[in-house]
Amino acid sequence: MVKTLLKSVRQYKKPSIITPMFMALEAFCECLMPFFMSRMISEEHLASPDALTHILKYGVILILLAAASLTCGVLAGKFAAQASCGFATNLRHDLFYKVQKFSFKNVDKFSSSSLVTRLTTDVTNVQQSYQMCLRIAIRVPLQFLFAIIMGFVINAELAWIFVVIVPFLAFFLIAIARVVMPFFKRIFKKYDALNNSVQENVGGIRVVKSFVRENYEKEKFNKAAGEVRNDFTRAEKIIALNSPIMTCFINFASVLITYLGAKTIIDSATLNGSFVPTELSALITYGVQILSACMMFSMVFVMLTMSLESARRISEVLNEQADVLSPENGVKEVKDGSIKFENVFFKYSQTAQENALSGIDLEIESGSTIGVLGGTGSSKTTFIQLIPRLYDATEGAVYVGGVNVKEYDLEVLRKEVSVVLQKNVLFSGTIKDNLRWGDENATDEEIERVCKLAQADEFIKNFPDGYDTYIEQGGTNVSGGQKQRLCIARALLRKPKILVLDDSTSAVDTKTDALIRKAFAEEIPDTTKIIIAQRVSSVENADKIIILDGGKIIACGNHTELMQTSSIYKEIYEEQTKKKTEGGADNE
Q1: How far apart are CA 233 and CA 237, in angstroms?
Q2: CA 258 distance to own-chain centroid
Q3: 375: which residues sit within 8 A by CB, 6+ positions away?
Q4: pLDDT tens column, 569-580
Q5: Where are the alpha helices (DSSP H) in 240-276?
Q6: Are 379 and 551 in contact (CB under 8 A)?
Q7: pTM of the model
Q8: For the chain, what is the total number of helices (H) and then of strands (E)?
Q9: Fewer Cβ close by (within 10 Å): the C or N end of the chain?
Q10: Closest CA to 342 of 364, 356, 357, 360
């Protein structure tokens, strides 16, 4: 896990190395100061004729040490900020780029809300921990070590007291960590649920308001936020024991040193010994430094305990292997738009008991128009997602242009297979910006042409700013039908060999639907067109119509053939025709 995260340090290795060096120098300077202070005020020097000279000499040394300590601390803070912020930037970059390589299956594994949490909250936690590790986590052991060493230099017998209490402190810290870690694991899962609640609410705010469900959504949010608060409170209550436990141990050690030191001084005076009050003062000062080091370590410990789960979650994404990858030296050209399914089976996970698609055998000629009909849950969308390798077939093979899709370079394949998915998405920016997702170098004339094919040109020109009209995030300032036509135009701009429309004309009227299909037939005759629809009229004139049910092809043929051979198709056609006729009669 640590090795995975440290790969993101990259160009910030230098400040990451320099920071601990300055922290070590700062700790060294601070630990020398009590020693020279005790030497400056020792009876031996104060009683000598050159007392003032000694005081000035040690005073200058102390000033220099203080200045050096301050300088090292400032520089350490500067480089630590550079290193931690740069590390977090690289970490977000690596996570985002990794997610871009994920297939739908990988994204389904983590969920969108969880990935957002990992890119934001988890990275922030790791950034703070990294900065604390560079500064405090390096300073603390060094300060502790220097203080212990100087304590032994002054009086080895009393310094052993500090050494003895360390195992007890370590025991309590490890015990606390083992207790709180399960809390943090639960907390971050609940963070995901909280983000999911917010994401759903904001994304579907119009539906929430339409059904007057604001109070329900508030209750749901309060429940999720309350669960996060409760677990955090329990964890913080346990972690809060760090400070009093360490303070208790260190104060006990200081009292013991004071008692034994005073006793030693009295015995030394009686026996003309060498241990003097100034040395006891220095020893107590080192005890305070050890206490300070332990308190700072407590802060690091709390942050590390919190961020350990964040680090694990980030590493989980970074170590995830995308299950759909471009092969080495993949095929760089799609010859034509022919498609072949060869005994294809597919399920969304290895643990799934049933296949989403079963025994699909189908050949589609280049330039033909294929209609796909089926009820809800019949795997129509799954069927077309195998063509551009949004998912890979579990068994069997899918061929495009006579080549197995797994042999293509992914970018090349997906450029030649334009998919207008069932859930249309527009991004914030102008209409031109959105359309140029299909071809970033497209001219204004080309954009206008595809919009005419998609029956979008007329409503675009009715906007005050025309093609420069700003689209809000998610396309909230255009209607469903307008959004669908813009997405179709965007797909056409790519000039694909295969165009897939996944129920993407459901929000337009039948007349506009017919005009779009007519434009396809006349303007892109060599492009293979696959149209998933609920209306029979949308696929009635297709070269071949496929009926899916339960992930299987139960009928295949043109309209005339299916009317004679498929009772299901005939029933759907007659029912929709009857409704259309009744609707027309009612209108009259």
Answers
A1: 6
A2: 53
A3: 549
A4: 888 888 877 765
A5: 242-270
A6: yes
A7: 0.67
A8: 21, 12
A9: C
A10: 360
